[in-house]
Amino acid sequence: MGKVNIEIDGKQLTADVGSMIIEVADEADIYIPRFCYHKKLSVAANCRMCMVDVSSLPKAVPACATPVADGMVIQTQSDRAIDAQKSVMEFLLINHPLDCPVCDQGGECELQDLSVGYGEDVSRYVEGKRVVKDKNLGPLISTDMTRCIHCTRCVRFGQEVVGIRELGATGRGEHIEIGTYIESTMDSEVSANIIDLCPVGALTAKPSRYKARAWELRESPSIAPHDCLGSNVNIHHRRGEIIRVVPRENESINEVWLSDRDRFSYQALTEGKRLLKPKIKKNGTWQETDWQTALNFAVAEMKRIIGVSKGEEFGTIVGNNSTLEESFLIQKLIRGTGCNNIDFRTRRRDFSKDQYSGVRAGFNFPLQDLDTMDATLLIAGDIRHEQPLAALRVRKSTGFGRAMAINPFDGEYNFRLYQEIQPEPHLLAQEFACVLAAAAQKQPDKINAEIKDWIEGITFTEQHAIIVDELINGEQSCILMGVYVQEHPQAEVVNWIAEQVARLTDSKWGYMTQGCNAAGNKMAGAVPNQSEFGGRATPGKNAKQMLTEGLKGYLIHNCEPDVESLWADQALANLQNAECVIALTSYEDGRVSDYSTVMLPIAGSYETSGTYVNVEGRWQSFSAAVPAPGESRPAWKVLRVLGNLLDTSGFDYESSVQIRDELKEKQENSRDKKESRKTPPELHAASEEETKRDSLGLYMVDPMVRRANALQQTSKASTHPISISRVTT
Amino acid sequence: MKKFKQFVNSFLLVELLKGLMVTGRHMFSPKVTIQYPEEKTPQSPRFRGIHALRSYPNGEERCIACKLCEAVCPAAAITIDAGVRESDGSRRTTKYEIDLFKCIFCGFCEESCPVDSIVETRVFEYHFEEQGAQILTKEKLLEIGLIHEEQLAQDIEADAKYR
Ligand code: SF4
Ligand code: SF4
Ligand code: SF4
Ligand code: FES
Question: Quick one: average pLDDT of A578-604?
């Protein structure tokens, strides 16, 4: 790209040809006031606040819509520029209410700031101001439309970034209004981003409405705990209470966005029914007790059950959102007592590859590259609801590239699909195998004897061939597997096919996983066949066996198998029938108080320090933003004490950082184990019963989200689109 | 010459008489000592005594929970929690507390208030009998406001043209 030399406020700068003045100025840290310009949205140039003075032009011009030209001399502070900006400000304030004291944006409002800089202190306008009726946009976003300055950022966000046009502008001039045309709520899974985008107080967060001012909030960086991307967030809190969660910019993960789930789940921590003291159930009634008694009780029960059954009758279920440190400690603890039943995969049916140890990340390419894929093949992915922000990236790529899907279920996509195949759920692997067959035919010199044997007799259609063509021809292409794939009884077959197709077509592959720390849990060894980093371990029972066979005792950590697991009903019955269930939980409502025998209060997300490993294998550590309420303690501390009480060695950690460092070291020392199979997995027919999808739904994925009130009131909470298959037999 | 003048002055006790003159003048000038508490000094309408939260004549509290007083208070004496009022969805405080032990009676809170809600009354005689009573709660503040409303309205009126 060519370069031009320009001068802004006396600073000599070089800029790319075609870039706008405002971009160059931003880069050089020269501030130009603006309302409608946003770096992630198209240029609308309708607010006119960004007027600057270009010496070669007779009038001030908008900096966001004026491309740079060689030799331009630009002044942002000259009389002409300031004059233009002042008049724009006066116009903007004509219809703006004098509302700042009751406005939730007060203190962090771009209009407020700029009116201090460019506004007159006395208004020349005496006529009546216009009033706009507020719209009801649902339980997440509250509106004060009289304050809207019609920058249309919110409209452009829906149109360009999400691909769902929920808001629009109707009317012209004085009568312009932002709204939903017909009365309806905002239902997209990333809708609340318009709160951040709106430069004024027209769109604000409903759950934190009127709660606090920007200036009294403290900001702590953290990682969102609900999907495998690990979006970066800032926790805004005051006096130890979380007030809101906002995105923290990270171009390689969440850009500047945040899904509604990550943004509003904090409500569970502040408004959920928290367990504040350890409790023991005696004769059917709960009794509060102190930590010492509760821990001793738990340890005695564990020793008894593990001792009598030689570890056979005790099981440990780890929640999806446990941190790396917690998972590591809990597996170390349980293996130290001579019990090997531990698993976090409560939503997996295929354990056929368990005996091959090894750990690796779900993606073999950076997440960011999803933006630039020429071809993306989605396998059984409800990406919009599973990883809402990844869907935005795939959508970005469909601007020039093509997205295709093999999905047994009715998908809701916010991008156009070039090809869509809808097999029956139990024939997913068979359908995908046809793609492999097509790929093998197109790339005969890349296949080996094994694949040749494997695809023997598999026929493919025109459509499969087109998909393969796209994958081959795309300069960058990838195969993305949705969360459902890992729930499928033939998960390993699908995974294997994906990798073979990727190899043959020179594409990338990526597996999306349930929860935010699936990769970390596996690395930490919270699986029955391997300890940390693929270390050798005596095989134990997996989650399915533990939950369906029924054991005498359970230790459940940050997880509700009676809701989350694929065998919810059986899990509930077995937990109820168990002699002892030790629950490490942050909440005391729900059925956990029904079936557990002792409840130990642990800190929730944002209240504990730890590390999440995201789907790319990126380690993201965070420290506690707020203290845990009552007597609840960070889980790693509880596990450390439990470890010591159980007489297992090596539990003398003083901080979670120490645990992380030890793990990091272990990772570096672990041999890079190849996770390849000796023989390809067999393609056998799966039963229809086994492939039913009991989707958890967008707002049911973990104990925290399930208790976030505002999210539960949204329409997305009750109707989940992907739970039924369109195919009828 | 100088010495002679000095001698005459001291001989005639001029310095002493001068001093006595001052005493004499003060003996007959009007007295300023106030016999508190029987007598009281006059107060300015801007007097900064104990705080009050004012209400509108219809009983509606004025405060809109903008939190400016909390922000401006140099002694961090004010603590406010706010939220949506159930009945009409308006912005209201759920907690408004002033710690009088921290307060330095600077009057900034009064000046910052956009709706003349938090004000300082002319009352400066009060005491606390219990630990903790120095924290004026929202209820107490509103009550003080009701008691002194007439005076407060007058004072604000009197000061209005200077603001
Ligand atoms: S949007 Fe900004 S300028 Fe308008 S009332 Fe709210 S804080 Fe004030
Ligand atoms: S509601 Fe906010 S973001 Fe949307 S057009 Fe109005 S001012 Fe802009
Ligand atoms: S008078 Fe001054 S110190 Fe006292 S509460 Fe008001 S602002 Fe704070
Ligand atoms: S920012 Fe340039 S016109 Fe709005």
Answer: 93
> What is the topology classification, in CATH, of domain A279-357+517-669?
Rossmann fold (3.40.50)
Q: Which residues contact B33 (CB under 8 A, 6 or more apart)?
A: none
Nearest Cα to A683, choosing from A430, A352, A349? Answer: A430
Domains of chain B: residue spans and CATH: 51-162 (3.30.70.3270)
pTM (two decimals): 0.90
Query: Considering the domain A371-512+680-693, what is its CATH architecture?
Result: 3-Layer(aba) Sandwich (3.40)
Q: What is the mean pLDDT of residues B33-57?
A: 92
- Smallest Cβ–Cβ distance between A209 and the set B68, B84, B114 belongs to B84
> Residue A721 — pLDDT band, cuts 50, 70, 90?
very low
pLDDT per position as a tens digit, B55-106: 999 999 999 999 999 999 999 999 999 999 999 999 999 999 999 999 999 9
Provide the CATH number for the domain formed by A110-271 in this structure.
Answer: 3.30.70.20
Ligand 3 centroid, distance to A276 Cα (angstroms): 36
Query: Rounded to an integer, what distance in angstroms lies between the CA atom of residue A383 and that of residue A224?
Result: 17
Which residue, by CA, sits nearest to atom 3 of ligand 1? Answer: A112
Q: Quick one: tokens of A692? A: 């039913």
Chain A residues closer than 8 Å to B71 by CB: 213, 215-216
pLDDT tens per residue across span A387-410: 999 999 999 999 999 999 999 988
Q: How close are the terminal C-alpha atoms of chain B, in Å? A: 63
* B71, B91, B115 member nearest A210 (Cβ): B91
Q: Which residues does chain A have within 8 Å of residue B70's beta carbon, measured at their own beta carbons?
A: 216
pLDDT in tens, A455-477: 888 999 999 999 999 999 999 99
What is the per-residue pLDDT across A129-138, written as a single tens digit (0 to 9) for each? 899 999 999 9
The angle at the Cα of B90, spanning B85 to B96, to the nearest 5 degrees, equals: 60
Residue A483 buriedness (CB in 10 A; 0-12 / 13-18 / 19+):
buried
Count the Cβ atoms, other than its own, within 10 Å of residue A726. Answer: 10
Residue type present at position A578: A
Hey, how many other C-beta atoms are within 10 angstroms of the C-beta on B44? 10
- For residue A170, what are the β-bridge partners? A177
Which residue lies with its CA nearest to atom 8 of ligand 1?
Answer: A100
Smallest CA separation from ligand 2 atom 6, residue? A148
C-alpha of A499 from chain center: 24
Contact yes or no for A153/A197 (Cβ under 8 A): yes
Sign of CA dihedral A117, A118, A123, A128: negative
Sequence-distant (6+) residues with CB within 8 A of A60 are A51, A52, A53, A54, A80, A81, A83, A84
A440 — alpha (psi -120 to 50), left (phi > 0) or beta?
Answer: alpha
**Element housing A75 (H / E):** strand A73-75
Main-chain dihedrals φ then ψ at residue A258, nearest 5 degrees: -155, 140
The Cα angle at residue A520 between residues A303 and A548, in degrees rounded to 5: 50
CATH class of A3-92: alpha beta
Write b or e for each residue in A594-618: b if 16 or more Cβ atoms lie within 10 A of its Cβ, otherwise e.
ebbbbbbbbbbbbbbbbbbbbbbbb
β-pair type (A508-511, A477-481):
parallel
Question: Would strands A279-282 and A285-288 be described as parallel, antiparallel, or unpaired?
Answer: antiparallel
Residues pairing with A236 in the sheet: A219, A244
8 Å CB contact between A648 and A630: no
Per the document, the length of chain A is 729
The phi-psi region of residue A130 (left if phi > 0; otherwise alpha if psi is between -120 and 50; otherwise beta) is beta
Domain ranges of chain A: 3-92, 110-271, 279-357+517-669, 371-512+680-693
Report the alpha-carbon distance of residue B39 to residue A447 in Å, rounded: 108
Q: What does residue B83 show for φ and ψ, rounded to 5 degrees?
A: -175, -175
